[in-house]
Structure formats: structure tokens, C-alpha cells
Amino acid sequence: MGLFTSNKNxxxxxxxxxxxxxxxxxxxxxxxxxxxxxxxxxxxxxxxALNSFERAWRGDEHVQLxxxxxxxxxxxxxxxxxxxxxxxxxxxxxxxxxQSVIYNCSH
Length: 107
Prior knowledge:
Elements: E1 16-17, H1 21-29, E2 33-39, H2 44-56, E3 63-69, H3 74-84, E4 92-97, E5 100-106
Parallel strand pairs: 1-3, 2-3
Antiparallel strand pairs: 2-4, 4-5
């Protein structure tokens, strides 16, 4: 594997992929802490951010990880921006406790 190549189908973490608005609603209303990661498969900065996040993650069984592919599921990303009140950016991670935003970051 070269320096700038990656296996896009291999995720190091137990991501739950959100592919429709129903999935997002279920995740949004789930109790507990959760991280939503918005990723653009066309953006090298987003790929670097995803790789950095996955390498840095130390695991927490009490935090659910949700992944949104912005290219395929932009409507899910847009709805998350509406629900959370966090302006869309890419890449972006949003940490919630129940339905309250605790922290968000982007590049």
C-alpha cells in the first residue's frame, strides 16, 4: 500500500454507517454518548482526518460511533446539521450526550 492510498472499505473502528434519514433519527434519539463523523470520500483532508481519528481513538464502550459518507448521503448530513444546530463542514466530528452537542470540530 502506498503513502497516499487506502482501503476505503476497511474501517478500523466499529462505525455504524448512516445511510438514510431513518437511520439518523434512530441514532439521534439513542441514549448515551455518540460521535457523528462526516467524511467526504473525495477529499484528501477528510481522509487524513478520518485516519488520524481512527489511529487516536482509544475506545470507549459507552460511546457509539456513527459514520456519514457525505458524497452518497448528503441529505443525512444536512439533517444532522439541522438537528444539532452545528453548521456543516467536512470533515467534521460532532460529540453528543443524548441529543445535546458537547463538542464539535472540523479541519
